[in-house]
Amino acid sequence: MTPSGLEYVRNWLIKANNDIKVAERELNSADPVTDAVCFHCQQAVEKFLKTYLIFHSREVGKTHNVYILLEDCGEIDAEFVEVDLKNINFFGVNVRYPDEFYTPTIDESREYLDIAKKIKSMVEDRLQL
To answer: What is the pTM of this model?
Structure first.
């Protein structure tokens, strides 16, 4: 674990959970902005996976690639590599710019929120903080 210890890990969890809250609120709004929902789902997954790695004193680089992070988590717990993240990485960077214009459907947004919640549950269950 990092020198700042459990407080640092808890702060990562707060940030990850805030991304889940934003995604849920937006998805449940009258006119959801689905690309923003999916962006926050990707951000939550990224932060939860980084939290898990930090807790296990693993080096966490500046990557936003959740597939790499998931693989790194899988080296600690093989159950992580069984999770299908679909195409969630796309929403971390690409969908934020008009060059890769894509508007996810409500159903896709719900699916990505479910994925984020699954990763949340996996990480929080294992950390038991």
So the answer is: 0.93
